[in-house]
Amino acid sequence: MSDKRIQIFTGAYGSGKTEVSMNFAVDLKKEHEKVALVDLDIVNPYFRSREAAGPLREKGVEVIFPAGVLATADLPALSPHILRVLQNQQYQVVFDVGGDDVGAVALGRFNSYFKEDQYDMNFVVNTNRPFTRDVMGIEKIINKVMKSSRLKVTHLIANINLCNETTVEDIMKGYPIIKEVSSKLKVPIKYLAVEESLKDELDPNAFDEPVRFIHLYNRPDWLKRMR
């Protein structure tokens, strides 16, 4: 785990950054007393961390999102509790930010806190999505996110997947592309996020970075029945 108190997760639409951020928050709770996951996703109304608030709270993670009717709205509404956990140094704070540069704009309101405190901004990459299939596409979106958020991407997270149809071959095919981006931009890969069902098939020693097997908290029922 990182020693940075604030962890921001962003990425292109469909990168899987919500699942990655939720798993990161749950793992943080094993080491820290107070962990808050801030749902700052104003882009995708269907796969947001607030949809898994129940299971996350059972694991001791505080989930922050707008209350009442705004909880299900696809609007740029922000909870006042975000400032509470940012100002309280006892909290480890994880941000789940909406896809691409549009979602990153919401981070601007809290920019002063990120400058005052150390943070990681983790860009989650899935090479099986239309705009992040190659080095040029990934670099373009990273630059847009940094411009919109006024923050620097500090790490990449490889989350190479085809949802329920992901194979080890898919991961091995996408990994060199993300390695090339890392080398070109001089941004390290923090780890590879791999769905836990592949744990017996994937050799973690095949990669230069750690592999973290993740649980899918937001998997719809129809996908659960397929594997």
Give a short synopsis of this structure:
With 227 residues, the chain is α/β, with parallel strands linked by helices. It has helices spanning 17-29, 53-58, 81-87, 100-104, 111-116, 135-149, 168-185, 221-224; strands at residues 6-11, 34-40, 62-64, 91-97, 119-125, 155-158, 189-195, 211-214.
User: What series of H and E elements makes up the topology?
Assistant: EHEHEHEHHEHEHEEH
Computed structural class: alpha/beta
- Quickly count the helices: 8
Please outline the major beta sheet.
8 strands, parallel
Q: Quick one: how many beta strands?
A: 8
Strand order, sheet with most strands: 3-2-4-1-5-6-7-8
Query: What's the shape?
Result: globular
Arithmetic mean pLDDT: 86
As a percent range, the share of strand residues is 15-25%
Distance between the termini: 30 Å
The count of domains is 1
CATH homologous group name: P-loop containing nucleotide triphosphate hydrolases
Gyration radius over CA: 16 Å
Description of the molecule:
Residues 14-159 form the CobQ/CobB/MinD/ParA nucleotide binding domain. With 227 residues, this protein is α/β, with parallel strands linked by helices. It has a single domain, classed as P-loop containing nucleotide triphosphate hydrolases (Rossmann fold, 3-Layer(aba) Sandwich), CATH 3.40.50.300. It is 33% helix and 20% strand. It has helices at residues 17-29, 53-58, 81-87, 100-104, 111-116, 135-149, 168-185, 221-224, and strands at 6-11, 34-40, 62-64, 91-97, 119-125, 155-158, 189-195, 211-214. The protein has an 8-stranded parallel sheet, sandwiched between helices. α6 (135-149) packs across α7. 40% of the residues are buried. The model is unreliable at 68-76 and 222-227 (pLDDT under 50).
